[in-house]
Design goal:
By secondary structure, the chain is an alpha/beta fold. The protein has a single domain, classed as 3-Layer(aba) Sandwich (Rossmann fold). The protein is built from eight helices and ten strands. The chain has helices at 9-31, 45-51, 81-90, 108-120, 159-167, 186-190, 205-213, 245-249; strands spanning 2-6, 34-38, 62-66, 68-70, 97-99, 126-129, 152-156, 180-184, 194-199, 231-236. It has a seven-stranded parallel beta sheet with strand order 1-10-9-6-2-3-5, covered by helices on one side. Helix 1 (9-31) packs across helix 2 (45-51). The protein is globular. It starts with a strand and ends with a helix.
């Protein structure tokens, strides 16, 4: 895993988007099409804003996949990740298609199976992801399942994860935050050719340090990115504030 430290969130978003856009263009040139994964949350605001402004991407040959979604939340709810992606990304670029995670269906396990089949038919070229305050990757909270080969899972959300969602203002209270979600699995994320991980903000500093400097462990789900040969972690100075000098100099 490579590390790039930027001045602030805006610069982070611009550089991360540029790197991801280059990988998309490369896939289009080599394969005639590209498949991407798109994350949500406050950490992705600047990256997605910069990505849709990147020039010379034929979005009509790009298919997108959704990373995770709450169970039992309508897609019009302000915290719905389907709504987030629709408003901030999907409606902004003329994609070939976008496969949402339907968290409000009657059978979430059927949703997982259907998405799992689809993503196996579309090898992913570029994944845009983040890291949670508790070190989660997608909605794989600690201790994450590093063994399953299933592409999508129904997962339990821990209190730290739910506190983050309430703290960022997506929900009025902790009690309003769902306790379950559908998430892409860690192993499925690692199948991606190029991973762009955007992590701004001081509140993510501990998770960034653990993800980079602690041995790979399900207790720090994002630490599994250390095993992926083409992941770049883009952080701002605030998120990098707890990293040791040896990590910063590598």
């Amino acid at each position: 895993m490579k590390l790039e430290v930027l001045e602030d969130a805006k610069q982070l978003g611009a550089v991360a988007a540029r790197s991801g856009a280059e990988a998309i263009r490369r896939a289009l040139a080599e394969n005639g099409q590209a498949n991407i994964i798109v994350a949500t949350g406050a950490s992705q605001f600047e990256t997605l804003s910069a990505l849709i402004a990147e020039p010379n991407i034929d979005w009509s040959r790009v298919t997108g996949f959704h990373l995770d979604e709450y169970l039992g939340l309508d897609d019009q709810h302000p915290a719905s990740f389907r709504r987030y992606l629709r408003e901030r990304f999907v409606e902004k670029v003329p994609l070939a298609g976008f496969h949402y995670v339907n968290g409000s269906g009657e059978d979430p396990h059927a949703v997982c199976r259907e998405l799992g089949q689809l993503i196996q038919e579309h090898p992913i070229d570029v994944a845009f992801v983040g890291i949670g305050e508790n070190g989660h990757l997608a909605f794989n909270d600690p201790p994450a399942d590093f063994e399953t080969s299933e592409p999508y899972l129904v997962v339990e959300l821990d209190e730290a994860c739910r506190q983050q969602q309430a703290g960022e203002g997506w929900f009025a209270t902790l009690a309003d935050v769902p306790t379950q979600a559908i998430s892409m699995s860690c192993r499925q994320i690692l199948k991606t050719k190029t991973i762009i991980c955007s992590v701004p903000d001081q509140r993510k500093a501990q998770a960034v340090r653990a993800s980079l400097e602690v041995p790979v462990s399900p207790d720090v789900p994002a630490s599994i990115l250390q095993t992926h040969e083409n992941t770049t972690l883009f952080v701002d100075k605030a998120a990098a504030s707890l990293l040791t000098s040896s990590t910063l100099s590598d």
